[in-house]
Amino acid sequence: MGSSGLAGERRTQARRGCTWCRNQRGLTSDLWPQVTRFGEVANTVTMGVAASSPALELPDLLLLAGPTKENGCQELLGLFPLQFVELFVHDESRQQLKVKFCTGRAFYLQLRAPAETRHLEFGQWVRLLYRLRYHAGQGAVPFTQEESEDEGWDEETIEDPETKEGETLLPTQLQAREARLDPQTSELWGL
Amino acid sequence: MTYAYLFKYIIIGDTGVGKSCLLLQFTDKRFQPVHDLTIGVEFGARMVNIDGKQIKLQIWDTAGQESFRSITRSYYRGAAGALLVYDITRRETFNHLTSWLEDARQHSSSNMVIMLIGNKSDLESRRDVKREEGEAFAREHGLIFMETSAKTACNVEEAFINTAKEIYRKIQQGLFDVHNEANGIKIGPQQSIATSAGPGACPRNSRDTGSDSGCC
Q1: How do residues B10-67 score in pLDDT, each as one tens digit?
Q2: Which of A92, A159, B8, B36 is the most buried (most CB within 10 A)?
Q3: Among partner residues A77, A102, A181, which is closest to B58 by beta-carbon distance?
Q4: Which CATH number does the domain housing residue B41 bear?
Q5: How far apart are CA B63 and CA B69, in angstroms?
Q6: Strand pairing category for A74-81 and B41-50
Q7: Shortest Cα distance from A99 to chain B (angstroms)?
Q8: Contact predicate B84/B100, CB 8 Å
Q9: With contacts defined as CB-CB under 8 Å, which chain A residues touch B8?
Q10: What is the ipTM of this complex?
Q11: Any idea what DSSP says for residue B215?
């Protein structure tokens, strides 16, 4: 899947000014290095949420972008309905989120932001997670505290024990998908 | 890189037919035997040259699983081309083509070019759908048809590029209003400055296209 990338395959550090969704109205976005258990940056993605309709009170889409091989500029990798995605706070002290798809695939992201605003920005994401989970009727605590669900880290392959084999989906593996769309020309349309 | 036009494509078809593998082969020239199930939509893009013009293909790789079907329908809008894919080794994926085609016709522009693709042509020994059946289905429904193998890359380039050629041909014939992005066609940044004419108009003042523009 495009959002992730194999560890070490791409270490491009996208610059904030290049973030494609900065100027999109109603979108929250931030740079999120994908991190390994050793705290190494495996890859950097830009993650944002958006509402597919102005009538919606909450976002219903998760968007992920990553740097292109050619020029390092951000291009859109994927658009995922939030009904198929769960977001968790993985480690508040390190500003890390866990993104988990309904397929069982999961990965961890650490917020990259200037030190002076990092806590503020992460706090905004936490508030968003609370609202999304409350809205989804999942309870109001968006923290993994993964005693039973996941045993700590597994940045490459995570199989959801709740997903029965053959039910929906296969064990998943984070896959590299190189960046695609040119954000500078806002080419995503048709939604 | 600048381009004369951008075409939006969607790739549709049953789960497991090789939609994501076709995209990966086309954009990255590699094959991945095990691929994650797609949810939502994943994007790919590549520049191709059609008739001396640089054309950017923006490809929406959609989820094929039935449980995502209603979501997938929302991505058809504004597509200029569709790759409708079945697996030649699984008869049921061929049987479901009518349903996919209905969705495509219902939720997209009537001018959308549809390429029917029988994928996994490398698995000849396991073939379950004859090539002639694919050809007949395509003929009956006015589609272009090719058999491909995302594994060996056989016909993958051709499938994407022939679709682009057909879209380009329709532009030249004035069948697509290139100024209406709902048709899945976007004029490149430079061209949009240069053009002010109506449907089917061609860029005139682009370093990409130069003076060899065939339709102006």
Answers
A1: 999 999 999 999 999 999 999 998 888 899 899 999 999 999 999 999 999 999 988 8
A2: B8
A3: A181
A4: 3.40.50.300
A5: 7
A6: antiparallel
A7: 14
A8: yes
A9: 189-190
A10: 0.77
A11: -
Task: Give B67's contacts in chain A (Cβ within 8 Å).
Answer: 168
Counted domains in chain B: 1
Q: A187 and B58 in contact by Cβ < 8 A?
A: yes
Look at residue B196 and tell me if it is in a domain.
Answer: no
Q: Please, what's the b/e burial string for A6-29 (b: 16 or more CB within 10 A of its CB; e: otherwise)?
A: ebeebebebeeebbbbeebeebbb
DSSP 8-state secondary structure symbol assigned to residue A112: B
Let me know if residue B103 belongs to a domain.
Answer: yes
* Residue B31: predicted pLDDT: 96
Please tell me the predicted confidence (pLDDT) of residue B160.
98
B212 HSE (CA, 13 A, CB side): 9
Contact A80, B40 (CB under 8 A): yes
User: What is the pairing mode between strands A96-101 and A106-110?
Assistant: antiparallel
Asked whether residue B199 carries a pLDDT value surpassing 60, the answer given is no
Q: What is the pLDDT of residues B71-129, one digit of tens each?
A: 888 888 889 999 999 999 999 999 999 999 999 999 998 889 999 999 999 999 999 99
**Token pair listed for A8:** 């070490």
Domain of residue B11: give its range: 5-187
Q: What is the pLDDT of residue B148?
A: 98
Residue A28: its pLDDT value, please?
A: 58
Q: What is the 3-state secondary structure (H, E, C) of chain B?
A: CCCCEEEEEEEEECCCCCHHHHHHHHHHCCCCCCCCCCCCEEEEEEEEEECCEEEEEEEEEECCCHHHHHHHHCCCCCCCEEEEEEECCCHHHHHCHHHHHHHHHHHCCCCCEEEEEEECCCCHHHCCCCHHHHHHHHHHHCCEEEECCCCCCCCHHHHHHHHHHHHHHHHHCCCCCCCCHHHCEEECHHHHHHCCCCCCCCCCCCCCCCCCCCCC
At B188, is the pLDDT very low, low, confident or very high (cuts 50, 70, 90)? confident
Place of tokens 């001396």: B52
CA distance A58 to B33: 37
Chain A residues with CB under 8 Å of B186 CB are 187, 189
Q: How confident is the model at residue B210 (pLDDT cuts 50, 70, 90)?
A: very low
